């Protein structure tokens, strides 16, 4: 049982973490901290959080209603702090909480990149970096905000921890236990391994989906094209409905690994173009068949590993 959890960012990721912990009976109090007064008020109204903490200007404090908690009050006695804000905000948030971070508080994050987050934590936390256990839940939807939060988002989903050499086993286990209470399956990678893997299977697909929708939207006959776009286009581009701010930050934060994967993909497209230009149907079919086989194997493995959401 966690006595107090503080969550920076109570949208889909942070809000779902809060809802899951509450449903599991694994936490007594959750304090939410965020930039938007409206979002914080909505999270409180929905019962996602029990109190609002304020780290921004006085105007925000006034907007969220009577007696919001100061950052020091929000963090006092906290067992766990989750950073579920865009990765570009990580260093600023860590720097803000560092003076108020008690010895018994463990901090983790939900960022989609890890090498930059680790570097930011070392700069912002200094000798308190041992209290920071980097993490990344591999779950999401294309919706945002407190209303998108659901209590079963993490059931059967992977959470990757990229623990630091300075982290104690007890602190790592506290973070892991919280995610297990949400129904997640824990994995371990180094920060470098994490960023290379997710550049290929997450960051590149988002870049491609955004690029395709942007390309169609900028055509003079875009309305006509969208009129006839059906399920294939919808499925391929679903992730282009995700937060542009968040994916801008992720793309820039993981730039070297993402550029490597983008170059490899462009080479693959060049090869496919050559097959198409040469009317080489056999070569195209070989690529398509290999991709189909690989996807079927992946889907089978995912369906075996992931439990369905529980009522």
Question: Can you describe this structure?
Answer:
This protein is 53% helix and 13% strand. By secondary structure, the protein is of the alpha/beta class. It folds into two domains: 2-189, NAD(P)-binding Rossmann-like Domain (Rossmann fold, 3-Layer(aba) Sandwich), CATH 3.40.50; 194-305, 6-phosphogluconate dehydrogenase C-terminal like domain (6-phosphogluconate dehydrogenase C-terminal fold, Orthogonal Bundle), CATH 1.10.3660. It has a seven-stranded parallel β-sheet with strand order 4-3-2-1-5-6-7. The chain has a three-stranded mixed β-sheet with strand order 8-9-10, with helices on one face. β1, α1 and β2 form a beta-alpha-beta unit. α5 (90-97) runs parallel beside α6 and α8 (191-217) crosses α12 (255-277). The longest helix is centred in the middle third of the chain and has 27 residues, at 191-217. The protein is globular. The relative contact order is 0.11.
Topology summary:
Layout: E1 2-8, H1 12-24, E2 27-33, H2 37-45, E3 51-54, H3 58-63, E4 69-70, H4 71-75, E5 80-83, H5 90-97, E6 106-109, H6 115-125, E7 132-133, E8 135-137, E9 158-161, H7 169-181, E10 185-188, H8 191-217, H9 222-228, H10 231-237, H11 244-253, H12 255-277, H13 281-305
Parallel strand pairs: 1-2, 1-5, 2-3, 3-4, 5-6, 6-7, 9-10
Antiparallel strand pairs: 8-9
Domain tally: 2
Mean of pLDDT? 93
**How many helices?**
13
Q: Give start-end ranges of low-pLDDT stretches.
A: none
What helical percentage do the residues reach? 40-55%
- Give the full name of the CATH homologous superfamily of the largest domain: NAD(P)-binding Rossmann-like Domain
Distance from N terminus to C terminus (CA atoms, Å) equals: 22 Å
Question: Major sheet: order of its strands?
Answer: 4-3-2-1-5-6-7
Strand content: 5-15%
What are the secondary-structure elements, in order, as H or E?
EHEHEHEHEHEHEEEHEHHHHHH
Radius of gyration: 21 Å
Q: Based on helices, strands and strand pairing, what is the structural class?
A: alpha/beta
Cα shape:
globular
Q: What is the name of the CATH class of the largest domain?
A: Alpha Beta
Q: According to CATH, what is the topology of the largest domain?
A: Rossmann fold
